[in-house]
Amino acid sequence: MQYNTPLKIKNTASLDVISLTQKLIQFNTVNPPGNESGIAKFVGRLLTENGFDVKYHVFTEGRLHVIAEKGLSEKVSPIVLSGHFDTVPLGAKKWSVEPYSGKVIDDKLFGRGSSDMKGGLASMVCAAIQVFKEGLPKGGVRLILTSAEELGCQGMVQLSETYNNFGSASAIVIGEPTSNIPAIGHKGALYLNASATGITAHSSMPELGDNAIYKVARAISKIEKFKFDAEIDPLLGFPTANVGKIQGGINLNSVPDYAEFSIDMRLTGKINHKKLIKKLRYDLGDEISLEILVDLQAVRTDETNPFVQLVYNICKYNKEKGPVSLPYLTDGSVLQKLYNGTPTIILGPGQSNMAHQTNEYCFTDKIIQAVEIYKNIIIKNGELN
């Protein structure tokens, strides 16, 4: 079976979430460079037409965040629904479907961002619109939709530092891909750039130079063997480290006077980031300089929290399986801290194993199901408060 849903977005309670997902996929928001202004304005207009108070906040030129609110009360804090507009690049491997078509084949909606996370974004927008057509949820809804998430939540970090009207929140839902299974936490992240300098010389006389690549090589070996000295986190497991990129030198027959590499550490709640950075500087020594690119804490909410139990019940999650955590980073790292530890759930229709993949897809039934899940969460969270 193969079909395409018409891309007619109507200002009605029957807003078609599949059509909306397809429309969002048609915006090329690959980061870099992002170019999220078009999709942000499209979503912003749709929300404005449906009675939301919409504000745009600039990340950089051509890149916007959207903050949309409706039904807010002075007595009860709103629920926050959050997602991001940007996607990763297509990759080197050729796609078998057009990556910006949003084509549906055998109940799978294909396209870059379908799982990560335009399916979740569309479901949140549709749920937020529809829930007000069926009643007035207590406390209301705040949507925080960001640019520049994919390279370390840079957009949300910038928004948290420059926007001054976040208000309060009763709960937070991050629409990242979980196949509609609620997750109550994920690891934090420390991204570092490590570099070394030297003295250039002709390669036939290396004794006259100081080889920066050798310094970097010694440092990478230390990272490979690095011990965190951390006990296991019951929810998040053990911390990890990975060197993902290295570069240095300018030509074959010169001693390189500069080299650098990246360090990606995924950290649990058992790690003190400041102490870890101090230990890294000591272990790598004076010949290596460290630049902090991203420093975000882990996300976690106690499984016994009433909001978590509410979401478990709505999702019909089997509690005997135990709590779910995620290996990847989300904007929840910034939002949970911003809202002073407010209970935070990561929950979206996408499949995590499809994120960043060639021929990325999301099951259409998961997207449709997510709308009902989000609506129920909005309504019943209001009743909790």
Structural class: alpha+beta
* Percent strand: 15-25%
Largest sheet report: 6 strands, mixed
Taken together, the total number of domains comes to: 2
Number of helices: 9
Q: Please identify the top-level CATH class of the largest domain.
A: Alpha Beta
Shape type:
globular
In the CATH classification, which architecture of the largest domain applies? Answer: 3-Layer(aba) Sandwich
Could you state the CATH homologous superfamily of the largest domain?
Zn peptidases
Mean pLDDT: 94
Helix content: 25-40%
Low-confidence stretches: 1-8, 10-14
Give the terminus-to-terminus CA distance: 45 Å
> H/E series, N to C?
EHHEEEEEHEHEEEEHEEEEHEEHEHEEH
